[in-house]
Design goal:
The protein is elongated and about 55 Å long. Helices cover about 75% and strands about 0% of the residues. It has one domain. The protein is an all-alpha fold.
Length: about 110
């Protein structure tokens, strides 16, 4: 959200498009993992299932619906000011060049 250009609504939409599917998959797979606890006879396991399922549902709902709406209204400005600017682009380039330098150093070390 901080490195995307545009106004708050465009940045919230772009962030949701980019991160929405992984967040949904994480919440859904976690819910499926604890779904077997709903069949347990033990009171403590059923209670644990109810709590964990509630966390998955409410956490996923907040991440996919509530937080993007709030950030579209009162979200922060992007790096470099209103339009993303050159400062935000410079920061992105520095981050990517640091990763390239580390990858190059690892490949040189592997050839010895």
């Amino acid at each position: 959200m901080m490195q995307t250009k545009g106004d708050r609504i465009e940045r919230a939409r772009a962030t949701l498009v980019e991160m929405g599917v992984p967040v949904f998959h994480g919440a859904f797979s976690t819910f499926l993992a604890v779904l077997t606890l709903s069949l347990a006879v033990s009171y403590s396991m059923r209670t644990f299932f109810k709590q964990f399922a509630s966390v998955c549902i409410f956490g996923g709902a907040h991440a996919l619906m509530v937080l993007p709406v709030i950030l579209s209204f009162i979200g922060p400005e992007p790096f470099g000011g209103r339009g993303g600017g050159e400062e935000g682009q410079e920061l992105k380039e520095v981050q990517s060049s640091d990763g390239d330098a580390e990858a190059a150093g690892e490949s040189e070390a592997g050839t010895d």
